[in-house]
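Milestone 3.1: sequence recovery, worked example.
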């Protein structure tokens, strides 16, 4: 698979089969992904992998934590302006339409949202942490590392879903993986094999036309 094909076929998968993923494969992809660009070669990503037995233990541990936690950060701006607000709204509506959950079915939408915390059924996952001393440039390095991993996973026949929702459970995740206090969570990554029969995986999010985000200076 060439890079263009991997970019075109990668997507956020939200329904997985129960087929297991070898830990050695995940580690190999993470090692390759570490060649991603990193300002000053800081390589700020700190990764905690859970798989198979540890993934099941994490779900049990998560279920035992019922207290609300302070989010690590705001995933979206409080007052999201256009065109960003409409883009976020539309992809959500498109997803719920594929699932057959109308807007008035608030309970159904909440139940679907909660599936995030089961990694959408993926058997494997990792959590990406970063040192609290790092700033915006290093957070952008995390994005390049994660995208590199997702493209490599696509090449390997795996499906992924990057999940910032884990920023809402920072204490629980940190306690389970044993992250030291100087680290803070950025996101999780669901990893597995796509359930190609699941309607939600038919979702292909739209992209803005070039005229929206490109200006050629002459």
């Amino acid at each position: 698979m060439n890079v263009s094909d991997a970019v075109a076929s990668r997507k956020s998968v939200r329904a997985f089969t129960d087929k297991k993923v070898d830990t050695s494969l995940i580690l190999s992809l993470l090692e390759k992904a570490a060649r991603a660009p990193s300002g000053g070669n800081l390589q700020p990503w700190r990764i905690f992998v859970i798989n198979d037995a540890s993934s099941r233990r994490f779900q049990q541990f998560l279920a035992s934590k019922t207290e609300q936690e302070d989010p690590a950060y705001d995933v979206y701006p409080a007052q999201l302006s256009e065109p960003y607000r409409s883009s976020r709204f539309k992809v959500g509506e498109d997803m719920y339409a594929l699932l057959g959950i109308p807007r008035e079915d608030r309970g159904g939408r909440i139940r679907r949202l909660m599936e995030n915390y089961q990694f959408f059924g993926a058997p494997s996952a990792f959590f990406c942490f970063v040192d609290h001393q790092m700033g915006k440039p290093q957070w952008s390095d995390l994005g390049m590392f994660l995208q590199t991993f997702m493209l490599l996973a696509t090449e390997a026949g795996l499906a992924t879903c990057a999940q910032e929702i884990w920023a809402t459970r920072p204490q629980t995740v940190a306690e389970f993986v044993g992250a030291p206090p100087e680290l803070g969570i950025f996101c999780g990554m669901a990893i597995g094999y796509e359930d190609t029969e699941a309607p939600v995986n038919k979702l292909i999010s739209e992209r803005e036309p070039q005229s929206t985000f490109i200006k050629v200076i002459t």
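Residues 105 and 148 are 37 Å apart (CA to CA). DSSP finds eight helices and four strands in the chain.
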